[in-house]
Amino acid sequence: MTQDLKKLSDEELQHFLARHPQWKHADGMLRRTYEARTFLGGIEFVRRLGQAAETADHHPDIDIRWRKVTLALVTHDAGGLTGRDTGLAAEADRLFAQVEAAG
């Protein structure tokens, strides 16, 4: 994952959103809600994401409500969205698919 603090251009953001349509750009952040099959599946997803976030030193806002996990990403140090956000968002998608497949 890139440690780039350069803010994404509108074109870069639109390119990411086209490839990851479940992510939305709202209030200056990337947001997505995942719905796990089970509560513990959602918790396992958050555990794995927490490890990835700690490794990247980039921590999302996480809201857990039963089987739904909502993430919000922004690079506060850069004052907007950067490659750190899109990189962690893509990693979150990969991790969620992995947890759901393991079932």
In angstroms, what is the radius of gyration? 13 Å
Please name the CATH architecture of the domain at 10-77: 2-Layer Sandwich
Q: N- to C-terminal separation?
A: 26 Å
Average of per-residue pLDDT values: 94
Number of strands: 4
Strand content: 15-25%
Can you put this structure into words, describing what you see?
The chain has 103 residues and is an alpha+beta fold. It is built from 3 helices and 4 strands. It has a 4-stranded antiparallel β-sheet with strand order 1-2-4-3, with helices on one face. 47% of the residues lie in helices and 20% in strands. The protein has a domain at 10-77: Transcriptional coactivator/pterin dehydratase (Gyrase A, domain 2), CATH 3.30.1360.
Attribute tags:
single chain, 103 residues, 3 helices, alpha+beta, four-stranded antiparallel beta sheet, globular, 47% helix, Gyrase A, domain 2
